[in-house]
Specification:
Layout (H helix, E strand, L loop, with lengths): L22 H4 L6 E2 L22 E8 L9 E9 L10 E5 L13 H4 L10 E5 L11 E3 L16 H19 L8 H14 L5 E7 H12 L4 E9 L6 H24 L2 H4 L5 H16 L5 H16 L4 H22 L15 E3 L1 H6 L8 H14 L5 H5 L27 E5 L7 H11 L2 E6 L13 H13 L6 E4 L25
Parallel strand pairs: 4-5, 4-7, 7-8, 8-10, 10-11, 11-12
Antiparallel strand pairs: 1-2, 2-3, 3-5, 6-9
Helix pairs in contact: 4-5, 6-8, 6-9, 8-9, 8-10, 9-10
Length: 517
């Protein structure tokens, strides 16, 4: 670990004779209570929680705000627990983290109920928690600030300064609302909170299942506390070497990869879709459709939704036929056709317009690593992404962020990840994952010495327990429950490409002539 100051009492090499500055925290005895009604997996983006064999319990654990000053301000961490079904086979606690950073997609303390349908409940107490700053834990807030730049997936150069100013204003709002807490909401401190939870629950070691941001958090925990980590699975990984900016920009490449795979599939069915007999020609048809939308004055926001749909629907292999029909209709019907096709298209993340503040954790955690301060760096990347990676809002992944105007100096440097003393576990990652590029999963497995489970031709994100992939579920459960660590392997996706035969294949259906309107 490379830090400016290593917090005391948090490393595995501490002498038994050294006073433990965290002793008061480790000796807490939480009061467990039934979960409030309806307090489960409260995310519209994930399946509803499964019925549980026992009530989910909730408690509060206190942690230091600043681990270099354990006697200072304390934070509350909301924790949940679903006890193991078979006490005689129980092998400890399994801590669960997904989403974020900052609550987006995160289940927090609702996670145990969301995985109650898996075999994990046979031998583990499933532990969920709201990371510091989120949910029912001590909140970190940021002001909701006004924006001047319009919603545009391909902004012109003339809009770049307004985009940057919006994020400068947002960072000033983070400073006002975040106060003294903001510099201490970071991945290393959340990992230290996890270790306090482990100690409070009376466990020598914890087991870990992390998704998305939770993969990086789990890797940091293993680097800080390798002797306190047992079995671990990291699903849909953050790249161990990328900054948060590089991680975001990789989403542009991931979406482009999916669009190109879709375009090749469509080209093999030119007789059905009429968009071109090569991937390059199909992509040209996509651009013709985008131009047809913006031929209508004031349709920039609609064209932006179209770019978003190209990313989201090319990732979902089951929607490839639908996406081809969409492009064909919009190419000839312009904004009117696009409005019909995209009426239900969602923008992620959604706009935050209600109330005066929002969760400020995303902004805090993503600036724990340095960002460029020269705005021309962002502008040059935005020009490139506008040309090459507009799909799935790729330009927005390259644009200026609050990190360019960071209002505090992080108290410590990022934790160095390595396989030294880190127990081997599993990485699960899908080809075509539009949120966390597959390259990140392969790199994380190599860095930590983990086995890699690759889901082929998928485009899915967060696989185990949610994608209904029996092969992946069997391997992960076999490792966690039975201790069988598989070799590197590949599994087929449960999301299939549409059953549309390629041209010249028996059963192929030529497209119908379009009627003149």
């Amino acid at each position: 670990m490379t830090t400016r100051e290593t917090p005391p009492g948090t490393g595995p090499g501490q002498s038994a004779n050294t006073p433990d500055p965290l002793r008061a925290f480790h000796e807490q005895r939480p009061r467990w209570e039934p979960a409030p009604p309806g307090d489960g997996a409260a995310s519209a983006w994930l399946p509803a929680p499964a019925p549980t064999h026992a009530p989910v319990e909730h408690a509060v654990v206190e942690v230091p705000m600043d681990y270099t000053d354990p006697g200072g301000r304390r934070l509350s961490i909301a924790v949940s627990r679903l006890r193991a079904k078979d006490p005689e086979r129980r092998r400890g606690i399994l801590l669960l983290v997904n989403g974020g950073p900052g609550g987006y997609f995160g289940l927090g303390r609702g996670f145990p109920a969301a995985l109650a349908h898996t075999r994990l409940t046979e031998v583990y107490d499933l532990i969920g928690f709201d990371p510091r700053g989120t949910g029912h834990s001590t909140p970190l807030r940021g002001e909701i600030t006004p924006t001047a730049a319009p919603f545009d997936s391909r902004p012109p150069d003339s809009a770049f300064a307004a985009i940057s100013e919006d994020f400068r204003v947002r960072e000033e709002g983070n400073l006002r609302a975040g106060g003294e807490l903001r510099p201490h909401v970071s991945t290393p401190n959340t990992a230290r909170d996890m270790d306090v939870v482990r100690a409070v629950l009376g466990e020598d070691r914890l087991n870990y299942l992390g998704y998305t941001y939770g993969t990086y958090l789990g890797a940091v925990y293993g680097a800080l506390f390798p002797d306190r980590l047992d079995r671990s699975v990291l699903d849909s990984c953050v790249h161990p070497d990328w900054t948060w900016r590089e991680q975001a920009m990789a989403q542009g490449r991931a979406n482009r990869d999916n669009v190109e795979s879709w375009a090749r599939w469509v080209a093999e069915r030119e007789g059905r879709f009429g968009l071109g007999a090569s991937g390059e020609r199909v992509l040209a048809a996509v651009e013709e459709a985008a131009a047809a939308i913006t031929a209508t004055p004031g349709a920039v926001a609609l064209r932006s939704l179209f770019d978003g749909a190209m990313g989201s629907r090319s990732a979902d292999r089951s929607k490839w036929r639908e996406l081809a029909d969409l492009v064909a209709d919009v190419r000839t019907g312009g904004a009117e056709a696009a409005g019909k096709w995209l009426a239900d298209e969602k923008v992620w993340p959604p706009s935050e317009t209600e109330g005066e503040t929002r969760c400020g954790v995303l902004d805090a955690v993503t600036v724990e690593k340095d960002w460029p301060v020269d705005l021309e760096v962002y502008y040059e990347d935005m020009r490139h992404f506008r040309e090459r990676f507009p799909y799935g809002y790729g330009v927005m992944r390259a644009q200026t962020w609050v990190g360019a105007f960071r209002t505090f100096t992080p108290p410590e440097r990022p934790v160095e990840l390595s396989a030294r003393r880190y127990p081997a576990g599993l990485v699960v990652h899908a080809e075509g994952d539009p949120t966390d590029h597959y390259e990140g999963g392969a790199a994380m497995a190599a860095r930590l010495g983990h086995r890699l489970i690759t889901v082929l031709d998928s485009g899915q994100h967060e696989i185990f327990g949610f994608a209904r992939n029996p092969d992946v579920d069997r391997l992960v459960e076999g490792y966690f429950v039975d201790g069988v660590l598989p070799d590197d392997t590949s599994c087929p996706s449960t999301v299939s490409r549409p059953d549309v035969p390629a041209d010249g294949v028996a059963g192929s259906i030529p497209r119908e002539p379009r009627k003149e309107s």
